TrEMBL record, chain B:
One of its GO terms (cellular component) is cytoplasm. Residues 94-121 form a coiled coil. InterPro entries: PFD_beta-like, Prefoldin. The keyword GTP-binding does not apply. It comes from the Eukaryota. The keyword Kinase does not apply. One of its GO terms (molecular function) is protein-folding chaperone binding. Belongs to the prefoldin subunit beta family. Keywords: Chaperone, Coiled coil. One of its GO terms (biological process) is protein folding. This is Prefoldin subunit 6.
């Protein structure tokens, strides 16, 4: 299976030693504890503030209050609290202002709001720190379990003519391949459905656009071909790939580029217009990866259209880089998902795979 | 409250100990840096708190009527102050604190750069 693919197996324990991970987790936990004590302090302030507000509200109810006045540190004497509506409020930093009860309550309200904002911010930072702690702990556990990180050079296997996914090599994916073979056909059908739908929409759009679409296709073909050259240089090994098909569509422009499958072009082409048929023939003959901006493209023939590579793109420029997926099972889901999500470019020369314990496929 | 930077400083110390670094002179210099950075952080925290407080005071002062009495606590004495004067004082204080914070930031940056260069010279 390995086919001379070089790889490195590094146990996660060596990269992140469990003790270090634990230490890091402890450090972060210390920070969490500090923050939580700070949080308690702030919450104390908030409660004190609300108690004060209720007191200030009740004081002006009477002209004067009979109270026990504190005298020195340990003595009290009976007295009266007068001027019940006048308060000297501390504004901060040694500044006091003389205010009425109502105004004092307003000040205290504002202060309470500011403190609650602080409390919220502190809670947010604490959540982040706790997430960090969890991450460190899980890393430590994984390292202890002996989970390994497997890195392999991604060697492009020469594609054979058979279109079954069995021929797709790459030992790492073989397990997943077997698992996903059953899903293949379903995915392919779904894919065909999606493409058929796109084709319908394209037709409708074309009816509306008319001539403009032609011009666009011309321009885009030029840009696309240029990109194709760049893209083909990026992946040298697959110059002679037999089957290349992938699709991408940009969400911005609702155009999509289709890489013609070299084989079995008859079916899709029958549905295409003449101009596009011609261009697709040309692309087939060149033997390179070509991309065409086609307004309508029947991207049917799901089974054989899933090559080893799909093409990724950047949304703004509609340039296409090459991305190799190791096996067809990935193509339907991954390429569709990649197109629908934010576009990205991968050079795809190496694949990093961190295998979780129960999914590690033994090399054979 | 350990900030990220001082935490980093501590990890540097720990890692140095971990690799069994012996040279006392250089490690002392590094420790000196770490202590400086920690002190810097402390002072910065103080200033930041004061800045926040003064900004609150300014907001409240702006909400006061023209004829309200403002007092300042100087030691045990409450001194009556003019509203305009109090406003001006608080604003000046805010500016001063901001300038101090910036200065401290610059110092901190210098310290960190020196520390990094020292660390590199040590590890080479």
């Amino acid at each position: 299976m390995g086919d001379g693919v070089k790889g490195t197996v590094t146990p996660l324990g060596s990269l992140f030693s469990p003790e270090e991970a634990r230490k890091a987790a402890q450090r972060v936990e210390g920070a969490v504890v500090q923050r939580s004590s700070e949080l308690r302090r702030l919450q104390g302030f908030v409660s004190e503030n609300s108690a004060l507000i209720s007191l200030v509200r009740s004081l002006p109810d009477e002209l004067s209050h009979e109270i026990m006045v504190p005298f020195g540190g340990v003595a009290f004497f009976p007295g009266r609290l007068i001027h019940t509506n006048e308060f000297l409020v501390l504004l901060g930093d040694g500044y006091y202002a003389e205010r009425t009860a109502k105004q004092t309550m307003d000040i205290l309200h504002r202060r309470g709001k500011a403190m609650e904002a602080q409390v919220e911010a502190l809670k947010a930072t604490m959540l982040d720190l706790e997430a960090e702690v969890k991450f460190f702990n899980s890393t430590a556990e994984e390292a202890i379990e002996g989970i390994v990180e497997i890195r392999e050079e991604y060697v492009e296997e020469p594609e054979k003519n058979s279109l079954s996914s069995d021929t797709v090599s790459d030992s790492l994916h073989s397990c997943k391949t077997e698992n996903l073979q059953k899903l293949d056909e379903d995915e392919d059908e779904e894919y065909a459905r999606i493409m058929a739908r796109i084709e319908e929409l394209e037709r409708m759009e074309e009816l509306e656009n008319g001539n403009t679409s032609e011009d666009n296709t011309q321009e885009n073909e030029d840009t696309v071909v240029r990109d194709g050259d760049g893209g083909s240089k990026a992946g040298d090994e697959d110059e002679d790939e037999d089957i290349e098909a992938g699709h991408s569509f940009s969400t911005l422009d609702h155009k999509y580029e289709v890489i013609e499958p070299k084989q079995k072009l008859k079916d899709p082409l029958q549905k295409a217009s003449d101009q596009k048929v011609l261009s697709s023939f040309i692309s087939r003959q060149t033997g390179n990866i070509s991309k065409q901006q086609l307004k309508e493209e029947a991207f049917s023939n799901s089974r054989m259209q899933f090559p080893v590579e799909a093409h990724s793109f950047s949304n703004k420029e509609l340039s296409v880089g090459k991305e190799k997926t190791a096996s067809s099972p990935f193509d339907a889901q991954s390429s569709v998902s990649k197109i629908e999500d934010s576009p990205h470019e991968t050079t795809g020369q190496t694949l990093n795979i961190v295998s979780r314990g129960h999914k590690v496929c033994p090399f054979s | 409250m350990l900030s990220a930077r001082s935490r980093k400083a501590c990890t540097i110390i720990l890692s140095l100990c971990a690799i069994g670094y012996r040279s006392s002179q250089v490690s002392r210099a590094l420790l000196y840096f770490i202590a400086d950075i920690a002190k810097n952080h402390q002072v910065r925290k103080q200033y930041t708190i004061q800045l926040g407080e003064n900004e609150l005071v300014l907001k409240e002062l702006e909400l006061l009527n023209e004829n309200s009495n403002v007092f300042k606590l100087i030691g045990p004495v409450l001194v009556k102050q003019d509203l305009a004067e109090a406003n001006a004082n608080v604003r000046k204080r805010i500016e001063y604190i901001s300038a101090e914070l910036k200065r401290l930031d610059g110092t901190l940056q210098d310290l960190e750069d020196k520390q990094n260069s020292k660390k590199e010279s040590v590890s080479c």
